[in-house]
Amino acid sequence: MAEEELPGVLILDVGGTHGVLENLAALLEKHFRLITMKEFLENKKEMSKKIQCVFVFERRPTIDQELLESLPNLKVIGNSGVGVDHLDLKMISNFGVKVTNTPRAVVDPTADIGVALMLASARRLVEGNVFSFPGSYLLWHIS
């Protein structure tokens, strides 16, 4: 399939502090033509017709009514992360757009962090860490 035939997917950017991870962008490029928000804003008239999907990564780009109105061929919003509470599902469905999510994509890391936080709390690791810095031993003897 030629690149110009691939459906367009709107993303905030590739890399940087808020963009889609580069390895994830490479995976998306196998199935979609990536269109960054900057490209879209520079040429809304042409790009809006090509975009059939918006890929939301770390809650970006923000999905609002103005964006939905400017994407007449939008079919799906793919959300990567935990939950869709940042998306107005009723408004999105009024545009006939479907929403997908990756509910189990971060299950293991979330569980790991949760258990680590419980253990840290139960074993008072934060307090112990404070005492491990040079000069803090005086607090240990005083308490």
UniProtKB/TrEMBL annotation:
Which GO CC annotations does the UniProt entry carry? cytosol
Q: Residue ranges of the D-isomer specific 2-hydroxyacid dehydrogenase catalytic domain? A: 23-113
Membrane-crossing ranges are none
Q: Which UniProt keywords apply?
A: Oxidoreductase
For this protein, the record's Pfam families field holds:
2-Hacid_dh
Carries keyword Nucleus? Answer: no
User: Can the keyword Cytoplasm be found in this entry's annotation?
Assistant: no
Q: Tell me the GO molecular function terms.
A: glyoxylate reductase (NADPH) activity; hydroxypyruvate reductase [NAD(P)H] activity; NAD binding
Name of protein = HPPR reductase
